[in-house]
Amino acid sequence: MAFVAGSSVAMTSVSCSLKQNQGPARISSLNSVSLSSNGKCFPSLRSRSVPHRFQISCVAKPETVDKVCEIVRKQLAIPPETAITGDSKFAALGADSLDTVEIVMGLEEAFEISVEEESAQSIATVQDAADMIEKLIEVK
Fold first, then answer.
1. pLDDT of residue 52
2. pLDDT, tens digit (0-9, with 9 covering 90-100), for 22-67
3. Residue 120's CB: how many other CB atoms inside 10 A?
4. What is the DSSP annotation of 10-57?
């Protein structure tokens, strides 16, 4: 059996005319792979580019992101015509370190959470803030 994780393949055992592997083998950079066992050569396996079919990620709910956008807009006095999305960076929106502290305080009040200083320093985007809020609410 073989399984793919990122850009590597781990083979734990292979059936057919191959005998059981004695241990797991890892192969990275999957352009082409040749297998041999007991002096017998088998055809090469070639990888082909396949678009990602699904992606697992832990992201905040859209309503959380929207609420964070509203709070950031209010704290930084950003006009309504300026777009703010999850990808918006606080620095790009004109926030300095004091503004970021005020944004975090506004988030704490709005979501009734407490943000550790260490966590607050790792926030760079609206999405970062929303993801952190979701985690804190989940723990709560």
1. 53
2. 444 444 444 444 555 555 544 444 445 555 554 445 578 999 999 9
3. 17
4. EES---TTSPPPSS-EEEESTTEE--EETTEE-PPEE-----------
The answer for residues whose C-beta is within 8 angstroms of residue 52's C-beta and 6 or more apart is: none
Location of structure tokens 């793919």? 4
Number of Cβ within a 10 Å radius of residue 13: 12
**Residue of 138, 98, 99, 104 lying closest to 118 (CA atoms):** 104
Can you spell out the DSSP letters for 64-80?
HHHHHHHHHHHHHT--T
Catalytic positions, please? 96
Residue range 75-125, pLDDT digits in tens: 999 999 999 999 999 999 999 999 999 999 999 999 999 999 999 999 999
Instruction: Report the 10 Å Cβ neighbour count for 32.
Output: 9
